[in-house]
Specification:
The strands form 2 sheets. This protein has a 14-stranded mixed sheet with strand order 1-2-3-4-5-6-7-8-9-10-11-12-13-16, with no helix packed on it. By secondary structure, it is largely without helices or strands. The protein has a domain at about 250-260 and about 270-405: Leucine-rich repeat, LRR (right-handed beta-alpha superhelix). It is elongated, with a radius of gyration of 25 Å. It has helices at about 5-20, 40, 175-180, 315-320, 350, 385-400, 405-410, and strands at about 75, 95, 115-120, 145, 165, 190, 215, 235, 260, 285, 305, 335, 360, 365, 370-375, 380.
Length: about 425
């Protein structure tokens, strides 16, 4: 046996011995391991704190696990903890999700200097149990998870270094403008599943967030579109509210929007040119509303969801007023089930949308007492060999995803979008 083969076997046995010590530890996909997010942890090296030199093995809280492969990470999740353990000074990523923690005192963070990510999701944290300024002093913190807790107030103050803030599934009903003023570097803000209404968003809360790319406001109590959104916005989630209309020219100052999700609202009419100023729009979801007719869609759009509305006929000329051979419409998928269609979409659609692959008709609500189907539930045009290979590759990738990932994608934009 060659020397290299012997060394490989020795290395394998050593690695196995190390991991056997922690055989009950779950390395699930929910952990954001540092090497899997280079854009997040290494996008601006000059802005990061210099990592001090530590002798190894480094200190680890006895309640937690510090894997040798990731010496700057400390895993304290799923351990029925009621309090936050003391955090060693070298830790950069701290995982405390899925515990019974109710308070965030300043004590455990006393010696922390380079902490960049904290995950406190799925706990029982209450707003009045968070020591004031406990997060603000963490001048290198860029990601904070507080979703699925019992917060009734927006946590304040927070460090200006913060880039990603997740506050979904709480009871937040107030959004003080001064809290957002101090967050100039935020790129992603998740406020889904809270108690926010129109009165809370009346001010120019988001306008100061010039780096904001993703805003999630789904499952709140909004009746109107949020005002004064920054022009940097690329992903906007407003599902499961009570929004009934989109003001004229609302998107004229949001040209970078890539994905817009407004399913499960009360929209009845979309002005014809509502989306005309969105040259980068790829996904538009207006399903589960009360729309009666279609509207103009930008040539960049690839996926359109208008299922479960009151549409009786798809007027293709409204969607595509003209054909430009130099700027072809990119639409590939359209979902129109649970409407009131009685006939398939006009074949003119295939001239307007030459890239279209699938029209999902499903069942239609054309009769008040029963649903009907239009000839076939799905139309798929024949694909070229190259397109077929691409679809097969995509299918293999999707088959590897878990049910949890699929459910998460239905409720949120994929969190790591850049």
């Amino acid at each position: 046996m060659g020397i290299l083969s012997q060394l490989s076997i020795i290395n394998l046995l050593w690695t196995t011995a190390v991991f056997c010590q922690y055989e009950d530890y779950d390395f699930g996909d929910e952990y954001d391991e540092p090497d899997q997010h280079p854009h997040y942890f290494n996008s601006n090296p000059s802005a990061q704190a210099e990592v001090p030199h530590f002798s190894f093995p480094v200190q680890c809280a006895r309640e937690c696990f510090c894997p040798p492969e990731f010496p700057l990470s400390m895993y304290c999740d799923h351990r029925k903890l009621k309090t936050i353990p003391n955090i060693p000074a070298h830790v950069q990523q701290l995982y405390l999700q899925n515990n019974d923690i109710e308070a965030v005192p300043a004590g455990p963070f006393t010696n922390v200097t380079i902490l960049r990510e904290i995950n406190l999701s799925f706990n029982k944290i209450k707003s009045h149990m968070i020591d004031r300024g406990v997060f603000a002093k963490l001048s290198n913190l860029v990601q904070l998870h507080l979703q699925h807790n019992e917060l009734d107030e927006f946590p304040f103050p927070l460090p200006s270094s913060l880039e990603r803030l997740l506050l979904g599934f709480n009871k937040i009903s107030q959004l003080p403008g001064i809290a957002l003023d101090g967050l100039p570097n935020i790129t992603m803000l998740d406020l889904c599943n809270n108690f926010l209404d129109d009165s809370v968003l009346k001010g120019n809360h988001f306008s100061v967030m010039n780096n904001l790319m993703q805003l999630n406001l789904c499952n709140n109590k909004l009746q109107t579109m949020p005002p004064s959104l920054p022009s940097s916005l690329m992903y906007l989630s407003l599902e499961n509210n009570s929004i009934s209309y989109i003001p004229e020219n609302y998107f004229s100052k949001l040209p970078k929007i890539i994905a817009l999700r407004m399913s499960h609202n009360n929209l009845q009419n979309i002005p014809r040119n509502t989306f005309i100023n969105l040259p980068n729009l790829l996904e538009l979801n207006l399903g589960h509303n009360k729309l009666k007719q279609v509207f103009y869609i930008p040539r960049s759009l690839q996926h359109l969801y208008i299922e479960d509305n009151d549409i009786e006929m798809i007027n293709v000329t409204l969607m595509c007023p003209s054909i430009d051979l130099m700027n072809i419409n990119q639409l590939t998928y359209i979902r129109v089930d649970q409407n009131k269609l009685t006939a398939p979409i006009s074949t003119y659609a295939f001239f307007c949308f030459p890239h279209i692959r699938t029209i999902y008709y499903g069942e239609q609500n054309s009769n008040a007492n029963k649903s009907t189907q239009i000839r076939t539930a799905v139309f798929r045009r024949l694909l070229t060999p190259e397109e077929y290979d691409e679809i097969e590759d995509d299918r293999e990738t999707h088959d590897q995803e878990t049910e949890e990932e699929h459910e998460a994608e239905n409720n949120y934009f994929f969190p790591h979008f850049w």
